[in-house]
Amino acid sequence: MSTPEGTTGPTVPGESAIRELVAIAERLAREAGALVLEGRPDRVEVAATKSSPQDVVTAMDLASENLLRERLAQWRPEDGILGEEQGYEPGTSGITWVVDPIDGTVNYLYGIPAYAVSVAAVVGGPDPATWQVLAGCVHAPVDGRTFTAGLGQGAYQDGRRLRVNSAVPLELSLVGTGFGYVAERRRAQAAVVADLLPLVRDIRRIGSAALDLCTLAAGGLDAHFERGLQPWDLAAASLVAQEAGAVVRGLHGARAGSAMAVAGPEQTVERLVAFLEERGADTGP
């Protein structure tokens, strides 16, 4: 275990320990992904809602998270876990698993194949403001794409090393984004997108922030920005993007978090951050 030179941040395990965490993250994500895919009925029903009637939870979200928690209790009983559906359970090891049992639940509800299981191991607490992500896996069950990353060990899609696109001007950039579930937040986000759209090549809204960031890492997007991302949205996919060469940050010098996350090659991110700061994209409802 070590702390990076010149920092007072969380203690980081060695390379072999990180490789083991990556392997566990992938094993977890694949097993939960198989459950999600094979157990999907022809018609998925909404089991509950959260922040609004549009913010849905299915029975499979709950079943997938239960599986992840059961496996982690068996394989890593001293670690903590933060999951989207069941909250935070602290551990004693200093490592916390941050899991999203289905990222892209609305896509799952409608049978749109852009959804994923996201699993990450972090130190420094389950908060993007303080954590260091050590290992992560984002697995898309429908097409089988599996993205993995370990701190300092690169990012991969199904064994292929990933690298983000080189920076290009905003007018040549394909930019991904997403929207919240509350009407007032959506109005504010729509206004930002309306101003940005004439300035970029085009905008994509895939419906899964984890897949957005992994698509960026694989060269399928030039940049991504989104307000309202939660720790389970960011953890694994942000490491995949960073290990592929992306900068992942917030506005006004802040780290990426719920206020705003912007990702891409450094020069593109600088231009996009300047645009978002000018329009106050991290303020309001």
TrEMBL record:
Cofactor(s) this protein requires: Mg(2+)
Transmembrane segments: none
CDD domains listed in its UniProt record: IMPase (cd01639)
Pfam families: Inositol_P (PF00459)
Enzyme Commission designation: 3.1.3.25
Gene3D superfamilies: 3.40.190.80, Fructose-1,6-Bisphosphatase, subunit A, domain 1
Binding site for Mg(2+): 84, 100, 102-103, 233
Family: Belongs to the inositol monophosphatase superfamily.
PANTHER family attached to this UniProt entry: INOSITOL MONOPHOSPHATASE, INOSITOL-1-MONOPHOSPHATASE-RELATED
Name of the protein described by the UniProt record: Inositol-1-monophosphatase
Organism of this sequence: Cellulomonas soli
Gene from which this protein is expressed: suhB
